[in-house]
Amino acid sequence: MAHVVQAIEAGGPEVLRCTEIDDPQAGPGELLVEVAAAGINFIDTYRRSGLYPMEFPHIVGSEGAGRVIAVADDVTGFSVGDRVAWHNAPGSYATRVAVPADGVLRVPEGVSDEVAAAIPLQGLTAQYLATGSHRLEPGQTALIHAGAGGVGLLLTQLAKHLGARVITTVSTEEKAELSRGAGADEVFLYGEGIDIAATVRELTDGEGVDVAYDGVGRDTFDASLASLKVRGSLVLFGAASGPVEPFDIQRLNSSGGQFLSRPSLQWFVRSPEELAERSGMLFDGLSTGWLDFRVGHEFPLAEAAEAHRALEGRKTTGKVILKP
């Protein structure tokens, strides 16, 4: 029997239940994996709450890392015992899960299970944000909201590696120190009485930033747009504070011919080759030392509801994972 965490209906963290089901099987094109760690992400909370349409009950989660314990007959190139990580296997809050073989990362020696579980969604997201949605170049300036969050810490390191100047926003002084530790050049607290756009303008001699990376959504969207330079880019990749209200596209013209994109990871890992290229940059960063993955919080599988509360309450830094 496999232990799993289900969302029994749409709602808050209280709808999560730990239960047992029959062991899953590796279907066509799949690997059966013993889960060593499962990643927790905001998209899990969107699906649990009903913001993203889902069937209920459903087993929560889509990201994790572990060892292969069975290989489907039509899958080649994998063996029992291989270490893998993934971002696209529904039902990953579990002790065992079936994972699409064409969407896994091969985990190199020297990378822990915890770090491996932290890499797929947040790591690949940070990588495509820095190199795909807006290709950062030396001398550019980037604004990154939630700079001490999982994506924020990784994106800051990637941006610095690519030669950009980084300005981040955070919610506490403790998080400010974490953001500076990741390489941020300027860090300031957002909240009541703080004019984000005015602060960014002051830090850029009135010019604004080349790109604003916004995973917060409703609470920061207008400030992000107002922080851009002429022909700057706003990359909206999440909605931690809620979805952005309907938007008049003419604002992009009147604000300086700016660009707005709403990407997601699925459009940037459309083939095993692209996935390998993006993950290769991350693993290279780990091996050569310019990239550090911070696992900030670990919860037992049975405490998934508490983990969701901590994430949604913005009480976390770095990656949050579950340990079966």
Automatic annotation (TrEMBL):
Entry GO CC: cytosol
Q: Which organism is it from?
A: Brevibacterium luteolum
Instruction: Indicate whether Glycosyltransferase appears among the record's keywords.
Output: no
Which superkingdom, per the lineage?
A: Bacteria
Concerning Gene3D superfamilies, the annotation shows: Medium-chain alcohol dehydrogenases, catalytic domain, NAD(P)-binding Rossmann-like Domain
Location of the Enoyl reductase (ER) domain: 11-322
Q: Name one GO molecular function term.
A: zinc ion binding
InterPro entries in the cross-refs = ADH-like_C (IPR013149), ADH-like_N (IPR013154), ER (IPR020843), GroES-like_sf (IPR011032), NAD(P)-bd_dom_sf (IPR036291), QOR-like (IPR047618), Quin_OxRdtase/zeta-crystal_CS (IPR002364)
Give UniProt keywords alphabetically. NADP, Oxidoreductase
Q: What is this protein called?
A: NADPH:quinone reductase
Q: What is the lineage of its organism?
A: Bacteria, Bacillati, Actinomycetota, Actinomycetes, Micrococcales
